[in-house]
Sequence to fold (200 residues):
Amino acid sequence: MSEDTIGNRWSESEEQIMEATRRALLQHGYAQLSISRIADELNQSKASLYYHYDSKEDLLQSFLEFTIDRLEANIDTDDEAPNRELEQLVEALLPLQLSDEESQHRAVMVELRSQAVMNDKFREQFTEIDGLIVKRVERIIDRGIDEDVFRNVDSRRVAEHIFATTSGATYNRATTDRSAAVAAVRVSLLSYINNELIRG
Fold:
């Protein structure tokens, strides 16, 4: 899905609401989030938000849909050789440094994910988010196999392994102070790609 497709799906006012939701989540977290606080970020009344959404949960489900669309647009490229594309995806999923805003955003997504334990709609959307990343990794590996860059491996199994590894490091980063862990995981994962996937 391209940025143009996203623009066609989401109106300007909806995008503004999604950005206001993101800012409110960064500032207050899920537990303290309210329609009033999102409305404050928009400089609009609560009534204007309730015109579009029935509740905070309804708005957050749309926010996750928006996140899915953005994620799909950001990871859908075939401009690089398969090995370089896979390395760049790992680097994007596990950046060594995060801005304060990006760090807060990732922490908020981990917090929202915790709601999926009891919320079927959130579970459905996080299942879709995870599936998009796994399928992207799988497609890169399949292309690498077709182009004789990668060994003939079970692409789904390897994609799930790569995703589980990056996810674990992401949650660790968001919930602990083990700052060196992400760099160690990234080095190990890139070494795995170079040694186990790439044909010698």
